[in-house]
Amino acid sequence: MTSTMVSGGSPPETAKEVIISADSHVMEPHDLWETRLPASFSDRAPKFPPPRVGEGFQHHPGGHDPRARVTEMAVDGVTAEVLYPTLGLTLFGQDDASLQEACFTVYNDWLIDYCRVNPERLVGVPCLSVYRIDQAVKELERCNKAGLKGAIVWQAPHPDLPLYSEHYYPLWEAAQALDAPISLHILTGHNYTKQPEKRKGPELYRGSVNLKTGEAANALFDLIFYGILHRYPGLKLVVVENEIGWMPFYLQQWDYYYRRFLKSEPLSLDREPSAYFARQVYATFFNDTVGGRCLEWWGQNNCMWSNDFPHPNSTWPHSRQVIDRDLGHLPNYVRAKLVRDNVEQLYGLSIPEAAAK
Question: Cα separations (Å) of 19 from 97, 141, 319, 337, 341?
Fold first, then answer.
């Protein structure tokens, strides 16, 4: 989907509201890993083509320049942004555990420096390699101490390491103790993105909708039905850039079959699946009219608006008009939750009064 163009402006009563994007992106230097990885990895460093400035992900300098980004945020009327990688998303599919770990350390160091320019408004989320879970815990602690928030792990895990595996228990425990939300972002891990034939022709469309949604649903299913959220009641999850319109239907069906099969196939749960979602799961949306209608009766405390800047899919610079289109039918207090309050509370943000204007 291309950037959404919406005519007209925001109504006066909402034109000055504080909005925070719960899913935006940085644009890493294309040679970040070639130039910064330790020499022992130099022959395996990920290589990306030089950018063509003004095209695609490079259309906005704020992707790599944090000072320019603050100016671009003002154009869109956005006060703060939660930041995820661009090139780094592809590295979650790395089969070489040691290389992935080194690549994410390089990225996280770069992101720490990027966000230091304006830490109240640039909210960076580090990447975690989870092959070696003890190292993942150390990196989570290091990055959060340096000012980053939570962490991203793969949405499509390695086949040998399903998300319900006890392998992850130390990470879930550490994230719970740190109050560090764990994000599952599209296009991360061992999935269809590693198969070029599934990103062409009709298969491109299948991946962009069917496979993407299926991966998010399966990850969420594993973490709920296998008792991970039950075992770690303080663990917070963020399902990122998968939109939300499908979620209430899945939760309805999971609740139905939970009740239907509970006596014959008991689970280590003490409540319906949707109750775990309500307590511990958040989800981002940015161009989802169906989801906007669902928010009349579902997800008001769990969903968070985003603009996906600076990707071509972004609603920038028309984010306020898109918000009006998709959320304009909601009461102002509900709208405030979705565009500001939920993300502030999840990440413990404190937006300065001057920045909010």
Answer: 38, 29, 9, 10, 9
